[in-house]
Design goal:
mainly beta, 3-stranded antiparallel beta sheet, 143 residues
Length: 143
């Protein structure tokens, strides 16, 4: 489990700010993001599909990785390239060995590559098969 207190771990992602988190979204730094049909930011909701956009922490506003974005908030977004590292989310129930390839899980996080687009590789070994906790932060390296 990553104990890093930042999302960007290595490299310089393209960073921009976009506003309007969609109503009812629970969006935390580290979530993969996308846009709904109204142009509002949502957690990336298509399993196995490609994205390299990640919600970042608003450190310039005094927020850290534990501060979630609310309805209508402006979101600091990072777009990550190959070889860059960041902190992402893995759902409980995953069992992954360091170096395993990851795809989007359809809920703003990652899961083991099944049939989708390989986005990243996990940089630590985790076994959350018998853990009934919420999502957990992990270190990933982007492909």
């Amino acid at each position: 489990m990553s104990r890093d207190r930042v999302i960007t771990l290595r490299g310089n992602p393209m960073i921009y700010e976009d506003d309007n988190v969609a109503d009812g979204q629970t969006l935390k730094p580290g979530h993969l993001i996308n846009y709904d049909s109204s142009g509002d930011i949502i957690k990336h909701a298509t399993a196995a599909a490609a994205t390299k956009s990640v919600a970042l922490e608003r450190d310039e506003m005094g927020d850290d990785v534990d501060d979630a974005y609310g309805d209508g908030d402006a979101v600091k977004v990072g777009v990550f390239g190959a070889g860059m590292r960041s902190t992402g989310w893995i759902a409980s129930g995953e069992n992954l060995v360091k170096g395993a390839l990851l795809e989007a899980n359809g809920a703003g996080g990652f899961r083991a590559l099944a049939s989708g687009v390989a986005l990243a590789r996990i940089m630590e070994t985790i076994d959350y098969r018998n853990v009934s906790t919420a999502d957990t932060r992990v270190k990933v390296e982007w492909l």
